[in-house]
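EI: anyone free to look at a 258-residue chain?
SC: sure, send it
EI:
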Amino acid sequence: KEIIKGVRTIKKLRLLCVIVVTPSLNKSFKFQSDWPYNNSQAYLLSNIVSDINMDQESEVTLDNDIYIITSKVNFPNNPALVKQKVSVNKDLMIEKVEILNNDGISLMTFKVDKTNYKPIFDENYFEINSIINNSEDIENSSTTSTIDDIIYPLYIPTGTVLQDEEKVSKTDGERVILTFKGEKPFTLVEETTMKEEEFTVVPTYGEPYLLIDTVGALSNNSINWVSNGIEYYIVSDVMNQNELIEVAKSMNVVSVLK
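SC: here you go
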């Protein structure tokens, strides 16, 4: 109880929005969202504490001077993640967070080397322009004007097949439209992206979702993201969010046969 009480003293800072900066495109995607507070996050201290506070059946055990706090977690789009195991040392500092499935198998691990409760940041540390100017990912190498290899999903819902494939030209590149029909019909669009001449802020609909090597925008019936110079968009009138995510996660950066 004292361990949990000590951790509870941490205060939350409320965010008005979530901004995903993509220097390679000279863009930032702005989500009007308090997503960090509506989902568990193994790397956000406030979320870890919130999950412990919300679980009236959380448990604390002692193992070689390390307190292990086990509680439920909330990952709405990944039901396989059900518990967190937080390792806290005698100084009440978190050393490790593990996210477990129903079988107690760790599917995600976050290790903490050190914690600074009074960090000092430069005045412009969180300014978008500063992030853009100091980013190593600033070259055009991750943009393209052609789609040399179409990427097909490795996962397709049962009873669903690829029915049509169309490649069209657009002003600054190419677009591929894949139409899947059957029990779970959906449309997959892949199109080239180019770096903006001036830094651009793009208002984005949906909730941020950590996907493959980037952050996507997830809504009730669609998910879209940018990876390796290609923007992907999946939309369906019948698939739920979990099914959309499964298709998106199965997209590989290496082209595969249909």
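EI: The chain is about 15% helix and 35% strand.
SC: 👍
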